[in-house]
TrEMBL record:
Higher taxonomy: Archaea, Methanobacteriati, Methanobacteriota, Stenosarchaea group, Halobacteria
Catalysed reaction equations from the record: L-glutamine + H2O = L-glutamate + NH4(+); aldehydo-D-ribose 5-phosphate + D-glyceraldehyde 3-phosphate + L-glutamine = pyridoxal 5'-phosphate + L-glutamate + phosphate + 3 H2O + H(+)
GO CC annotations on file: cytosol; glutaminase complex
Annotated L-glutamine binding sites: 53-55, 112, 140-141
Name recorded for this polypeptide: Pyridoxal 5'-phosphate synthase subunit PdxT
HAMAP family recorded: PdxT
Keyword Hydrolase on entry: yes
NCBIfam families xrefs: PLP_synth_Pdx2
Biological source species: Haloarcula salinisoli
Role played: Catalyzes the hydrolysis of glutamine to glutamate and ammonia as part of the biosynthesis of pyridoxal 5'-phosphate. The resulting ammonia molecule is channeled to the active site of PdxS.
Length: 196
């Protein structure tokens, strides 16, 4: 069974928990979900999910609780992470915002809320590298990825801007794959890279 830690200090935690369970089932695997609100749990997790929500809050709480350094170690040891929307903002190398202390686990910078305000949230059929059919991508006050390092693979773009990226064990999306039934992003983040 895959032990999946969902960062649960704030954000759409239960949606990610369901999404990883769906993806695991599709692989005849099971996922044991661990909600991370304190230090000491990340080191036992095979994979980590960093949900959408409010990046200023998530970043403040993971540093206060001593979780931030554990996430950095998890990635340094080559273990998979999926970071979506606010999660990607926190994972980035810079968010151009003093209120967000980023983790720098993905070599990319982001501009918060740059795909529009809440009312401009939208769903788009997204072409993703390796997917046969478009992925239904839900964008909610999504960050724009405004720089990616040369080792970062761009998996999908919208409006000529990267919206899904992979940097080693870390997959980041501007959109919310946890809000649709489609398991393919969780699949590529975890089951294409984890030995089964
Ligand atoms: N706008 C949020 C932030 O900057 C992210 C939005 C989201 O996760 N849906 O933290």
């Amino acid at each position: 069974s895959l032990r999946a830690g969902v960062l649960a200090v704030q954000g759409d935690v239960s949606e990610h928990a369901r999404a990883i369970e769906r993806a695991a089932t599709a692989h005849d695997e099971s996922a044991e979900v661990v909600e991370i609100r304190e230090s000491g749990l990340v080191p036992d997790c095979d994979v980590l999910l960093m949900p959408g929500g409010e990046s200023t809050t998530i970043s403040r709480l993971i540093h206060r609780e001593g979780i931030a350094g554990e996430i950095e170690t998890h990635v340094a040891e080559g273990n998979p992470v999926l970071a979506t929307c606010a999660g990607l903002i926190v994972a980035a190398s810079d968010a151009h915002d003093d209120r967000v202390e980023t983790l720098n686990i993905v070599d990319a910078t982001v501009e918060r809320n740059a795909f529009g305000r809440q009312k401009d949230s939208f769903e788009a059929p997204l072409d993703v590298a390796g997917f046969e059919d478009p992925f239904p991508a839900v964008f909610i006050r999504a960050p724009v990825i405004d720089y990616v390092g040369s080792d970062v693979e761009v998996l999908a773009s919208w409006d000529d801007r990267p919206v899904a990226i992979r940097d080693g064990p870390v997959v980041g999306t501007s959109f919310h794959p946890e809000l649709t039934e489609d398991p393919r992003i969780h699949d590529l983040a975890f089951f294409d890279s984890v030995e089964s």
